[in-house]
Amino acid sequence: MFNNLKDKVLSVGRSEWTSERGFVLATIAGAVGLGNIWRFPYIVGENGGGSFVLAYIIAILLLGIPMMVLEISAGRTGHGSPVRTFRLLNKKAAPFGWFVVFLTTIIMSYYLAVTGWTLGYAVESFFGSVKSFTEFTNSYMPLVYFLIVAGFTAFVVNKGVKAIETVSKILMPLLILLILFLATYSLSLKNAGEAVSFLFTPEFSALANINVWLLAFGQAFYSLSVGQGFLITYGSFLPNKINLPRAAGLVALVETSIAILAGIIIFPIVFSFGLDPQEGTQLAFTTLPLVFNSFAFGKYLAMMFFTLFLLAAISSCVAGMQVIKSAVKEEFNFSSKKSTFISFLPIVPLGFLSALSFTPMGFKVLGRPFLEILDLFAANQLVIASALIGGAIISWSFSKKELAQSFGTKWHKVSEFAIGVFRALPFIGAIILGLSYIF
User: Number of structural domains, the chain?
Assistant: First the structure.
């Protein structure tokens, strides 16, 4: 189907990543952020520690990396937004492309609110000791920080892909070095052994619980940005010379390593300071101030960490907003500025409600903060559904030979069996997802 697609696609004026290194670093910056340092630890804490971590690693290897390759390959072939790419795959699949954009809109609304927390902690660390999360949310400043982050993200998105690549090359090495330092320090705390046991010792009986697997696959897809249009959009700027399996593997390796390191940072603090690992969405922002305030030079370390954390979160925000903007720009032929403005119209009110969740008002739905409701709904059910449906559409639209080429292999009989299995995985996953609602 796609043999002569590149001759049919108009890509005049589109920028491209200058190198595989630039693409990998920018993709890491887009994938690594709140999903690893904020979301992964709190999901681990609420779901049994080591059992979830094992299921998460299996999810990354079994479907996460192959889905990454598939989505990036579709984006590179289609040279467009998720809507355009899925329309090229199958004329009837364009509405699914809009569903992906809708999902990303929901995720970005509360993602920007949490990114506002990182801005607040970064700003306040420059003017004094780091506040506890309770103190931080005892005002309406989270709303102000959310609006600032949304405005800055809109500015960067309007500047285009080159600006993202430049920032990413500087950002990621510094953040990784600081995370390694904090992980080393946390391992020196008095109850670090208990934390390591919690994080890496699975209870195999827990793996019989289908909800653990659903959460693991949801987190894997969420943190790798699978099913959210990000990989398709970034892949659309990708030149043919880049080795997709190698690039996807590197991104997944760094992403998973940072998530594990975030757990190594967080849980020794939890067990050493007598906190509850099931603290929920505020877990990282409850624990980190404790460790920074225990240092003689903690203020300066906090300034550095939260600034880098903020930049990592902003990179993820930019990646998500690029998905929405690309769809709006291509489908309606709007200017870059107008597309950016329209993309933010539904996000600001939703994000405002999410930011209100952790203020004196405490905006809740069904007894839980509105932000948590959005996160659990979007990052679990919707992301899994989007990834599985999108994977099925892409894998069945490519020929077997084109699939083999996407994974960097030459066509032969062994590939045919492997691709047959891979094509079946989205349907197997969909059956499991359906059974989870029945049982």
Answer: 1
